[in-house]
Amino acid sequence: MSDDTLLEIENLYINFYTKAGVVKAIDGVALSINKGETFGLVGESGCGKSVTANSIMGLVQSPPGKIESGIIRFSTPKEIIRRAKTKGLRKKDAYIKEAASKDKIDILKLNKKDIRLIRGRAISMIFQEPMSALNPVFTAGDQISEIILLHEKREMAEAVLKRMEDGKEPKKFVRASKKKDDKGMLRCSGCNSAVSKEQKTCTQCGASFVRNPEPRIRFGHGFYKRIYTKMAADPDDRMLNLMAKIPVVRRYRHPMIREANEKALRMLRLVRIPDPQNVMKSFPHELSGGMQQRVMIAIALSCRPQLLIADEPTTALDVTIQAQILKLIQELQEEMGTSVLMITHNLGIVAEVCDRVGVMYAGCMVERADTKSVFKEPLHPYTQGLMNSIPKVDLQLTRLETIEGNVPNLIKPPSGCRFHTRCPYAMEHCKEVKPELIEIKPGHSVACHLYGGVSNG
Amino acid sequence: MADEQQSKIDSSVNEEQAPKTSSYQRQRQASLFDPESLMKELEPRWREFKNSLSLFRENITAMVGLGFVIFIIFLAVFAPIISPPTTADTMYIPRDFQSPKPPGADGHLLGTGNWGTDMLYGIVWGARTSIVISLFVVMTGVLIGLVVGSIAGFYGGKIDNLMMRITDVFLSLPALILAMAIASILERNLQNMMLALIIVWWPPYARLIRAQVLSIKENTYVEAAKAIGVKKNRILFKHIVPNSISPLIVAATMDIGTVVLVAAGLSYIGFGVSTGSAEWGRMVSDGQAWFLSTVYWEGQAYTASWVVIFPGLAILIFTMGFSLLGDALRDILDPRLRR
C-alpha cells in the first residue's frame, strides 16, 4: 500500500443470513482508491455496490448482514486517531497502536465508538434520494449545523474564542449621538469632532452611535472563555459533555451553534445555492430535488472528509440537474482534494467523472482499470456486454444488444465464475474454478479465464 | 496544506459578505426596521406552527371542540368567582343537609343534590378536578409510554421483548378492572385514583409509539444520521421520536376526555374520592339515590333529574370537546393532508 492510497479493500466477504438462506452478497471484492481520485463502481442493481459502500462506513446491518472476512484499510487523519486514543479506556486496543505507527486503520476492526469519529468526518456519504435522506422535521440549516457541531466542536470553540478576542468585547462602551452644529455639519456629541452620516463609531473618541454595536457575550465572560478554551483543548471533555445535557447550563453552546450556523451558511454558498439565508431556514419539503441534493452535498462535505461516497447521487434527479450536481461534486472535489467513490449504474456518468472504474457482477469485482482503457478495450465479457448495450451515435442499429439471462440468485450462486451462466465464451473450466482478479496490463485487472486469469494454471 | 485549502475556500466564499459582523446578526438588526425582513426572520418552526394554526381555524370540528374545552377551562379558572368556596378544602361542596332543591331555588342556580349540596359549586370545582386528573394522568402516561415504547422499538431484540412483555402484563387485564383493583388496595383519595389510572394508561401509548418507531427507523434519513456519526440515543430522541410522535399527540388529546370518563366511572362505583366531593362522577353517584324521585319545594312537586343530568352534561361536554379536538388534530397532523 503506497502512501498515495487512501482506501484499500482486500478480500471482502459479506453474507446476509436470511430466512431463505445465506445470501453471499460480496464475494472477495478488492479495490483501492487513491487520494484525490474518483473511483467508479458500476454494476447492475443488487450486485453489491451499495453493500460495499456501507461496509466502508460500517453501516452493514447486522443481523442479518455479517462481514465474514476482509480488510478495509483507511488512511485516517491524525486527529481522529488522537481522539480515539484519548476518548476512553481503549488505549490498549491493538488497532490503535497499529494505527499510531502507520496511520492506517482497518475500519472493520474499529469498535462502535471509534467508527463514529470516522463517519461524517473522514468518510461521508450522499444518498440516492435526497428527499428521504433529509429529516423532514429539521430545517436544512439545522441538519448541516448538526454534523458540524458533532465533529468540529474544537473548531467552533476556537471560532467563538477568536470572536471574543477580536475586539468584539470593547473594554469601555461609550454611547454617543450625532448632533448637527450651526453649519449643518454632523458632529459627535462626545468629542465634537466631525463625523459622516454612515459612521457607526467615532474615529476620535471611539464612542458608538449604535445601540448594540456587535454581538457579544455580556455576562460571565471569564467563565465562558474558560469553557471554550477547555472545549478547544479537548472536545471530548466529560464535564462539558455532561453540561450539554443539563437544561439551562447547556446554553453555553449557543455561541458555538451560532458559529456552526455561520459555517452552514458558508457551506450552502459553497454548493452554489441561491439565496442561502432562506434555504437555511427551509424544511426539506420546501426545496426542489436538486436543491435537496445540494444540501445533502453540503452536509457530506461540511467536515472536509477524505472520502466521499456518492451512492447513485443523481438517480432520483432529472437530466439537467444531474449534470449540475455531477459538475458540482467534481468542482468541490478539486477544491477540497477529496476522493470520491461514485456508485452508479450509469456508464455515461462513469465516462464523465471517474478516473478509474471497478465493474461488479453478482458480488464480485470482475474488472478494474482506468476509465479510458475500460471504454476503449473492455476485457471481461460482462463489461463488453455492458458496453454493447449502450446506444452509440455512430452506429445505426435496429435493436440494442443485451446480455442474455438474469442476475443469479445469490443464495445459490453459480459455481466457479459467477458470470459463466450468461457468458458467451463460457468454458468447462469456468464452472469449476473461480477466476482471480489479475493484472493483465499495467493498471488493468480482470477476473476471467479467457485471459489466463487462473490461479494455478 | 489542508488548512491552506480551507482558508482559500472560506475566503472565496466570504467575499460577498463583510467579514466582521455575522450575517445572522446583521439580518436581525435590519429586521427591527424592515417589516419585510422581519417576516423572513420568522423562525421556521413558528412558520410551521402558523400554518397548522390556519388549518386549525378552517376546521369546524376543531373549533367546536375548542369551544367546549375553553368553556370548561373558563369554569375551572374562574371557579372562585363563580362559586366562592366556604371551607379550606375546596373539594368539599357546601351543603344544607336538606333534600334536593330544583334549579333556581333559594339562590342555587343549578339546584342542590344529595344532602343539599350546591350543584353549581360541584360542577365548577369539578371542572378543576377533572382537568387536573386528566392532564396529569395523560401526560404521565404519555411520558412513560414514550420512553418505554421508543426504546423498545428502536433497540429491538431482547430489550424489546422484555419491555413489551411487561407492557403485555398490564394490557392483559381489563383496564378498568385493574384500576379498580389497584384503587381498592390503596387509600381512597384523588391521588391514589390518579396513580391507578396512570398504571393502566401507559401501555397502549407504549404500543403505539413502538409501532411508529419501528416504521420510522427504516427511513433513509435515519441511515443518513448514522452515516454522519450521530449517537444512537440522539438518533432515537432527536431524529426518530419527533417524526413518530403525532399519532401519540392525537391519541393523548382524545384520551384527556376518556380519562375523565373513566375517573368518573371509578368515582361512581366508589373507588375515587369520598362522597360529597366536587368530582363529576361522584356527583352522579351521589345524586343517583334521588334521581327521578319526587321532591317538594315551596309546595310544588319536582322530579329530581338535575342531580344527575348536570354533572353528566359536564362530563359529556368535557369528553366531547377533547375528542373532537383530537379528531381534528388527526387531520391536521396527517402529513398526507398537510400539503
The general outline of chain B is elongated
Task: Give the averaged pLDDT of chain B, no decimals.
Answer: 82
From the N-terminal CA to the C-terminal CA of chain A, the straight-line distance is 27 Å
Strand order within the widest sheet of chain B?
Answer: 1-2
**What's the helix count of chain A?**
17
Q: Determine the N-to-C terminus distance of chain B.
A: 48 Å
Low-confidence stretches of chain A: 453-457
Largest sheet of chain B: 2 strands, antiparallel
Average of per-residue pLDDT values of chain A: 82
Q: Could you walk me through the main structural features you see in this protein, from its secondary elements to its overall organization?
A:
The complex is a heterodimer of chains A (457) and B (339). In chain A, helix 6 (140-151) packs across helix 10. Chain A is of the alpha/beta class. Helices cover 35% and strands 19% of the residues of chain A. Chain A has helices at residues 49-57, 78-86, 94-102, 112-118, 130-133, 140-151, 153-165, 221-233, 238-243, 254-270, 276-280, 289-301, 319-336, 347-353, 371-376, 381-388, 428-432, and strands spanning 5-18, 21-34, 38-42, 65-75, 104-106, 123-126, 178-180, 186-188, 307-311, 339-344, 356-361, 364-370, 438-441, 444-446. Chain B contains 16 helices and two strands. A two-stranded antiparallel sheet of chain B has the order 1-2. In chain B, helix 5 (60-77) packs across helix 15 (306-333) and helix 11 packs antiparallel against helix 12 (232-244). Chain B is elongated and about 85 Å long. Chain B starts with a helix and ends with a helix. In chain B, 39% of the residues are buried. The model of chain B is unreliable at 9-21 and 27-35 (pLDDT under 50). The chains are: A alpha/beta (457), B mainly alpha (339). The interface between A and B is large, with 47 and 38 residues.
